Amino acid sequence: MDPSPYAAHTWELRFASAGRNCGQKHADSVRTLLLVAARADLDTLTRLYRQGAAAERRAVLLALHLLVDSPAVLPLVEDALRTNDTRLVAAAVGPYAAAHLDPHSWRHAVLKCLFTSVPVVAVADLERRAAGDAELARMLADYAAERTAAGREVPPDLNRVLTLTGEQPEQPEQCDEPEES
């Protein structure tokens, strides 16, 4: 007989109610402590993320680097990066993402932060991963050009990240003006 989905471990009930019992200010810390103390496994982390509210999902994302040494739960990070919930995006670019996202996905995560106005200070290991990344520099320059062409403001964090790359993106070649005859 399958266990009832309603027979959660006591710690899981506390995980879900942390915001009500400890206040929103402390809920992330309490939830992270519960996950670590319970040594939540991959199945539990995935279930809590999939079934949880945004605050519970954020706590799972924040705890991943403390519980998982492999890229096994990258789908949770990728799911959070597809949302427009800035709290989830900020949690998704933490230490676990820094350690396990491939360069292409990591670059898109940085752009997602810029696009959704998540401060890039949320991006763990930004300085190391951005250093010398010519492709990231190109993507940032393209994004800035797109924003400028549309008459939109370029996020201030964009220049900070571009500086961290240490690269000057290649400018498209300009056609010379035809000489008047």
Descriptive terms for the model:
11 helices; single chain; mainly alpha; elongated
Mean pLDDT: 89
Biggest sheet details: none
How many beta-strand runs?
0
Quaternary assembly: single chain
Low confidence ranges: 172-178
Tally of structural domains: 1
- Could you give the order of the helices and strands? HHHHHHHHHHH
Q: Summarize the amount of helix as a percent range.
A: 55-70%
Work out the strand percent. Answer: under 5%
- Put simply, the count of helices is 11
End-to-end separation: 90 Å
Radius of gyration: 21 Å
Shape: elongated
Structural class, judged by helices and strands?
mainly alpha
How is this fold's topology laid out?
Layout: H1 10-22, H2 24-37, H3 42-51, H4 54-67, H5 74-81, H6 86-92, H7 95-100, H8 103-116, H9 126-130, H10 134-149, H11 156-165
Would you write up a description of this structure?
- By secondary structure, this protein is mainly alpha-helical.
- It has one domain.
- It has eleven helices and no strands.
- The protein has helices at 10-22, 24-37, 42-51, 54-67, 74-81, 86-92, 95-100, 103-116, 126-130, 134-149, 156-165.
- Helix 2 (24-37) packs across helix 4, helix 4 runs parallel beside helix 6 and helix 5 runs antiparallel to helix 6.
- Residues 172-178 have low confidence and may be disordered.
